[in-house]
Amino acid sequence: MAETMLNGVDKQSTTALHSSLSKLTGGMSLKTSVVSGDMKQVIAASVSNNVDLIKTIASEYLDGVKQAVNRSIVTGNGLADLVPFLDAYDNKTRNYAKNLALDQTRKAYTGLNKGRMKKLGVKQFTWLHSAGGQHPRKEHQALSGQVFDLDDPPVIGVMYGEEVRGLPGHLPNCKCTMKPVIKFGDEE
Q1: Measured between alpha carbons, how far is residue 52 from residues 66, 101, 172 in Å?
Q2: b/e map 65-78, b = 16+ CB within 10 Å
Q3: How far apart are CA 34 and CA 134, in angstroms?
Q4: How many CA atoms lie within 13 A of 138 on its CB side?
Q5: CA–CA separation, 183 vs 116, rounded Å?
Q6: Secondary structure of residue 188 in the 3-state scheme
Q7: What is the pLDDT of residues 117-169, one digit of tens each?
Q8: Torsion angle, CA of 164/9/95/165, rounded to 10 degrees?
Q9: Helix or strand or coil: residue 147?
Q10: What is the biggest distance separating any 2 CA atoms in the chain, rounded to whole angstroms?
Q11: What is the pTM of this model?
Q12: Cβ(176)–Cβ(130) under 8 Å?
């Protein structure tokens, strides 16, 4: 499943980058569908990471169900306590899995786009804030429209008390994207 999802992300990345580069160059066509060794590594790492995360859902779900069954036995309420818990827990698990899949898809998409851009000689990108979330990150709003080097991304937030540098889509639930910047000749 993870591999199928990433193949779809790969195709979407190819199409979006090709379209973006075509607009920037006035219709010049650049081959963006090449999957180099670097991009194969991005895909392989993404598949591995997705599989590991999916495995945690199953074990967390089973642990929660086991605890609920034990509680229903101890309280003596049996199914009266267990059925409502399972319904709510099932929805929570489904939402968690959905959010996890979306997050990993965004990370893979960004990784593939970065690899393709670098392969084509693109060194910079413009940060585009999605403006689509209920709780937008102020840091990402401030980054929107600014140009950054692919090899020296900006500080995108703080996690576990540490500043984090990265690309659009790297933080959980980030829907921001990047647009390639192409410089011709001696432009600065």
Answers
A1: 22, 12, 17
A2: beebeeebeeeeee
A3: 36
A4: 1
A5: 16
A6: coil
A7: 888 888 999 999 987 777 888 999 999 999 999 999 999 988 888 999 999 98
A8: 0
A9: strand
A10: 78
A11: 0.60
A12: yes
